Amino acid sequence: MQASRARLFKEYKEVQREKSADPDIQLICDDSNIFKWTALIKGPSETPYEGGVFQLAFAIPEQYPLLPPQVRFLTKIFHPNVHFKTGEICLDILKNAWSPAWTLQSVCRAIIALMAHPEADSPLNCDSGNLLRSGDIRGYRSMARMYTRLAAMPKKG
Amino acid sequence: MESEEDMHDANDWESVGEDLYSDYGEEGSEVYVEEGDDFFCNSNFDDSKDVMVVREKPFTVLSEDDIRQRQEEDISKTVAILSISKAEAFILLRHFKWDENRVNDEWFANEVAVRRAIGLLENRVEIPKLMELSIDHLTCGICFETYPPNMMSAAACGHRFCGACWQGYIGTSISNGPGCLTLRCPDPSCSAAILQDMINFLATDEDKEKYARFYFRSYVEDGRKIKWCPAPGCDFAVEYYKGSANYDVSCSCSFSFCWNCTEEAHRPVDCSTVAKWILKNSAESENMNWILANSKPCPKCKRPIEKNQGCMHMTCTPPCKFEFCWLCLGVWSEHGERTGGFYACNRYESAKKEGVYDEAERRREMAKNCLERYTHYYERWASNQTSRQKAFADLQSMRNEKIAKLREIIKEEESQLSFVIDAWSQIVECRRVLKWTYAYGYYLPDHELARKHFFEYLQGEAESGLERLHQCAEKELQVFFDALPDSPPTKEFCAFKTKLAGLTAVTRTYFENLVQALENGLEDVSSASQVAGSSTSKSQSTKGKAGKNKAAKLAVPQISPDDYWACDRCTFNNHPSAKRCEMCSHHQ
């Protein structure tokens, strides 16, 4: 408990210092609970998620960083490795490939990388995966783009 | 060729039963030697050699010390041959399932590839060199605190972390189970193995102990030659020599089990029947219903897996790590475009259409509807089980106290009373066989009438023979315990001895035949005349013995075996008072 608190505090300080370093990621710690974080990440360019801002929720276990944080999308997203209803993410480093040397920041980076390179081989969103697997890139991009517009971009007017 | 195979069977047969079958007891010798002679005549082997082979068991019972010693020896050998450290040899041997030959082959074929696969670095990254660069403090990659270099440790790869973080990292891994034996460096880009010397240097005492336990158990659990005795609280393991057709082994704790499936010994029934039967038995319980409904067994290690989240790509927990498709349970590496994608597996869909999966479910459904039939077999299976446990307890108390008491009353040498122990051992063994014949009977197809009738005949005979023996060993022996010590009933005891020893021998022979017949898949039934011939002669011989014993039995008022009526349909011997067959409910 003490160790995880200390480590999260370090990460918090690091985040404050680096705020301008990575413009795509904004990590925010809950005011009253250091084990609850949210992040705003920018959809990577040249993807259907470009221009969108996606909110992530982190629930951090007491054994962190020995155990990985639980992360899910709060913003609706159409992506093969993200559950369409719950926002759950299928990413190896959040499961068995976790290493205590990873940080919340690097987890965000990994998620951005996942958005740019969907892994259609182990899909959580079957419709999205099906489009990619069948080679209907246009279909996948249109759907993903539509949901980015609907959910991740400020409404016009 | 055929005779050789026969001999194999005969060897296994005799070697495994141990005392019960290979013991050429006085009384049993008649029948046994006859068979033996026959057998030696058929095969052109030297007699003396055969006897030696017969005596050899196809397995060895190992204590913890034996295992430790073997593990040490294997590790030392590898250390000597490959000139690597002990901890490295352990990682290497474990990776190749403790198969020394494979370790050597793979190592000398491609040392670099082997080293990479298991994370053994050839050259240690030298830490003193960094210190010479006059770096006075470093940041730990886990807690981000800074420490002087001497307070940090690294595996051979040189990635340094502080003591507290190492301790936590190792502790988390150890508490997750034997997967800790393949622990790697915490750095995400590094795959250097964490060796035992490092664990011993950094972990808490409790974790070190746990790790040592996994380390030791790995020799049995990851190896292919040794298995733990499944009896509760038993610390022995059994090494089995492959190539023998029969898997029954008996541990030093007196528990007999099948080495192949680690269920209790179940000759003459095969492992798959036993597995089906045991699953069926527990299928009635809520637990199993839940497991069946919510989990699937890992196709490789058979551990039940509950899928609570994520995609269809499953990876079993270490050390198994088998990757498979949740839908069709096939190997993941074979999935791809051809199987129609990864999430709506075509194989599963087409198999479902062809009815493979439905079939299994329908069968399960049907089995539930046939509950009555099942209950019939289960009750008999279970009552023989209980009966066996009781007989085993009786055998123990006989050995430990009652024999001494009997000696006082009868005034005989202990060696003269061993026939009582023989009888009880035989009862315990027969109950076991009889119990499993009910599982066998349950899975015997209904439409194969000839086989079914023959089986039920054999089983009925075996059962009534065993009942006679059990009755004699229990009730008739009791009479002598109640006798007054000053007037020892020597004469009666002599008659009793002849009777009990005779019954033991007859029952033993009968059960041997039963086991053999079932293991041959009741082949005899195809040549009907032969069956009729042999079975009548057998029943005559049993009856002959029983007849001889009638005089002794008359001393105790009870129903003579002749009063029992044999059912027309299933041949079971029913109590005179029964109007319907106790087995198949057929009218008298």
From TrEMBL, chain A:
A biological-process GO annotation: peroxisome organization
EC top class named in words: transferase
Pfam family membership, one: UQ_con
Domain UBC core: 3-153
Protein's name in the database: E2 ubiquitin-conjugating enzyme
Record-listed E.C. numbers: 2.3.2.23
Similarity field: Belongs to the ubiquitin-conjugating enzyme family.
Active site: 90 (glycyl thioester intermediate)
SMART domains associated with the record: UBCc
InterPro entries hit by this protein: Ub_conjugating_enzyme, UBC, UBQ-conjugating_AS, UBQ-conjugating_enzyme/RWD
GO molecular function: ATP binding; ubiquitin conjugating enzyme activity
Keyword Cell membrane: no
Signal peptide (from-to): none
TM ranges: none
Keywords: ATP-binding, Nucleotide-binding, Peroxisome biogenesis, Transferase, Ubl conjugation pathway
Automatic annotation (TrEMBL), chain B:
GO molecular function: ubiquitin protein ligase activity; zinc ion binding
UniProtKB keywords: Metal-binding, Repeat, Transferase, Ubl conjugation pathway, Zinc, Zinc-finger
Location of the region described as Disordered in the Swiss-Prot/TrEMBL record: 529-552
Cofactor(s) recorded in Swiss-Prot or TrEMBL: Zn(2+)
Domain RING-type as annotated: residue spans: 136-349, 140-186
Ranges annotated as biased composition (Low complexity): 529-544
EC number: 2.3.2.31
Alphabetized InterPro entries for the sequence: Ariadne, ARIH1-like_UBL, E3_UB_ligase_RBR, IBR_dom, TRIAD_supradom, Znf_RanBP2, Znf_RanBP2_sf, Znf_RING
Record has Metal-binding as a keyword: yes
CDD domains cross-referenced by the UniProt entry: BRcat_RBR_ANKIB1, Rcat_RBR_ARI7-like
One GO process term, biological-process aspect: protein ubiquitination
Record bears the keyword Zinc: yes
Annotated signal sequence range: none
Top-level lineage group: Eukaryota
Pfam family for this entry, one: UBA_ARI1
Start and end residues of each RanBP2-type domain: 561-588
Reactions performed catalytically: [E2 ubiquitin-conjugating enzyme]-S-ubiquitinyl-L-cysteine + [acceptor protein]-L-lysine = [E2 ubiquitin-conjugating enzyme]-L-cysteine + [acceptor protein]-N(6)-ubiquitinyl-L-lysine
Pathway this chain belongs to: Protein modification; protein ubiquitination
Protein family: Belongs to the RBR family. Ariadne subfamily.
Function of the molecule: Might act as an E3 ubiquitin-protein ligase, or as part of E3 complex, which accepts ubiquitin from specific E2 ubiquitin-conjugating enzymes and then transfers it to substrates.
Family matches, as PANTHER family: RBR FAMILY RING FINGER AND IBR DOMAIN-CONTAINING (PTHR11685)
Identification of the protein by name: RBR-type E3 ubiquitin transferase
Gene giving rise to this polypeptide: LOC109710412
